[in-house]
Amino acid sequence: MRLPLLSPAFPGTVGSEWGKLWSVRSAGLCLLAALVVTGVFSYYYGAIARINGHPVQPVGNAAASSVVLVQFAFAVLAMVAVTSEYTTGSIRATLLWTPRRHRVQAAKALVAAGVAFSGGTVCAVLGTAVAWGAFDGRASFDAGTTARQVLAVGVYQALVAVLTVGVAFAARHPAGALAVLVSLLWAVPSTLLGLGAATVVDGLPYGAGGHFVSAGAGGAPYGPVTAVLIVAAWAAAAHLAGRYALHRADA
Amino acid sequence: MISLRGLTKRYGGTLAVDDLTFDVRAGLVTGFLGPNGAGKSTTLRMVLGLDHPTRGRALIGGRPYAELHRPLRAVGAMLDSRAVHPARSGRAHLVAQARAGGIPVRRVDEVLEAVGLGAAARRPAGTYSLGMSGRLGVAGALLGDPAVLVLDEPVNGLDPEGVRWIRRLVREEAARGRTVFLSSHLMSEMELTADRLVVIGRGRLLSDTSMADFLASASPPSARVAVPDPEERAALARGLAALGGVSVEAAADGSLAVGGRTAAEVGDLAHRCGARLHGLRDVRVSLEEAYMELTAHSVEYAAGTGGGHGEERA
C-alpha cells in the first residue's frame, strides 16, 4: 500500500489541535458560558448606569467591562486544551505525532487564540446589543468606536488565550495553572487597586487590557497601542515560559 | 533500524537506564524483555523522543526520532494504550493523529477496520475495554504504514484471540522487512513471537542474542531417558558418569534426567551399552526458565527482598 505524501507540517498540527478541541465537550461549554456571562453582565452594567443616572458613555463599555470576568471562560478553554493532555497522558501521543514540541504549543496557542478572538468579538457584539436596551438612552452609539471596542475585546481574549497556553504548559496541572491565571488576571491587580497601586496595575494585563478595550473614559496613562503591547508582552513572556518548560521536560 | 548507543537515564540517584548499546534490526521481531522496573518503558520513551537521555543516543534510521522528517510514516509506536482522552472517540483520536502526521484521513477507517474497532470507532475511548484500548493503540501504530514498529506490552489485556492476532501481525510486518521492537514481560508470548531478544535488568543490558542462542546459552543440553530394566539403567548411568561433565539423576518415574548431554549422545551410549530404551527426548529449557536464570539477580521488586530502589513510571 502506498500512501500519498502530505507534509506533516505546521498546518497539519493546527488541524489536529482544532479537531481535538471540538471533539470533546469542554470547548463548547466554555463558549456558552462566555456568551451567558457577557449577556448578563452587560445587561446589569447598562441597567445600573440607567438607574443611577451615570453620564452618557459609549455603549461598547458594557461588553468591554465584562471582559474581566468573561476572560476566564476563554482561559479555561485554552487551559483545558493543554492540561487535559497531561491528566489523561495523551500528551505522549501528541508529542509522538509532532515531536517538534514548540510546534505543538504554537498550534495550540493559534487555535485557542482564533477561537478566543472569534468568540470574544461575538460576545462583545451580543453584549453591546443587550446593553443598548438596558442603557435605555444613557449610552451613545458611534459605529467606529463600537467596532474598535468589539475588535479590541476579541484581540484581548486572543492574547489571554496565548498567555494561558503558555502558563498551562509551564504548570501542566489545571490547579496550578488556574491559580496563576486567576492571580495574574484578577486577584493580584484588584487587590493592588484596593491598595491604591494603580500604576502597578497599569503594567499588568488587567490594567492594560482595561485601557485597551474601554472608550471615552479618559485618564488612561497611555494610548490603546501601548496598552495592547503591554498585554502582548505578557502573553509572549508566558508563551516563552511554556516553551521552555515543554522543551526541557520529559513527557 | 533502531540503534542505541550508551543510552542512559538517571532520575535523581537512580540509574533507570544504564549505558544501553544495541541495535534492533529490520526484518526481525526483536523482543525487549525485563522484569517490571527494569527500564523498558523509559528506554522506549527515550527512543521515541519523549524523555531526554542523561547520556547517549537513540537513533531510528540514523536520526533521533524528533528529527525525523515524517515521524508517523517512519515509526509506529504504541506506548500506554490508555493514554487517550476518555471523552474523545477512537476515531477522533486517530483523525487528529492523521492530520498531525500528514496522513490521509481515509486511512483512519482502514486501520479501524483492520484492528476490528469499526463498530466502536465513534464511541468515547473511555468506554473501551482494555482489549479495545489495546486495539486502538495498535491502530495508531499502523496508521502511517511505518517501517519501524515500537510496541510496549501490546498484548496486555487482550483476549486469546487478540493475542494470536498481534502475534500474526508482528510476524507479517517483520516478514515484509519492517523493524519490530516489542516489549513484554510475558515470556511465553515472546518465545512464540520473537526472533531476537534484548534482555535488561535494572537498566543494564543482560543479553542481546537470537532466541535460539539465548535458550542454548541459558543452560547446557539435557535429556530424559527411560530404561525399563534396572540393571541396564544402572549400567547406562555409570557409562554416562564416566563421560565426565554429566549429571545423572533418577526421576520419580524411574527414568534418568541427564544434564550435559543431548538425547542423540545419550542414545548413542545406550546403544553401545546395549540398554533397551522406552523413551528418549531432549529437554529444552523454556524461555521462562532461561530468563529467570538470567535476571534472578536483577529483579527490582522480588518478593521478600524488601523492595527495590527504582521506579517504573506509570
Automatic annotation (TrEMBL), chain A:
Source domain of life: Bacteria
Swiss-Prot/TrEMBL keywords: Membrane, Transmembrane, Transmembrane helix
UniProt KW Zinc keyword: no
Spans traversing the lipid bilayer: 27-46, 66-88, 109-135, 150-171, 178-201, 221-241
Keyword Hydrolase carried by entry: no
Name of the molecule in the record: ABC transporter permease
Lineage: Bacteria, Bacillati, Actinomycetota, Actinomycetes, Kitasatosporales
From TrEMBL, chain B:
PROSITE patterns hit by this protein: ABC_TRANSPORTER_2
GO molecular function, one term: ATP hydrolysis activity
InterPro entries: AAA+_ATPase (IPR003593), ABC_transporter-like_ATP-bd (IPR003439), P-loop_NTPase (IPR027417)
Domain called ABC transporter: residue spans: 2-227
Pfam families the UniProt entry points to: ABC_tran
Keyword Ligase: no
Keyword terms of this UniProt record: ATP-binding, Nucleotide-binding, Transport
Domain of life (superkingdom): Bacteria
Protein family membership: Belongs to the ABC transporter superfamily.
Protein name per its UniProtKB record: Multidrug ABC transporter ATP-binding protein
Lineage: Bacteria, Bacillati, Actinomycetota, Actinomycetes, Kitasatosporales
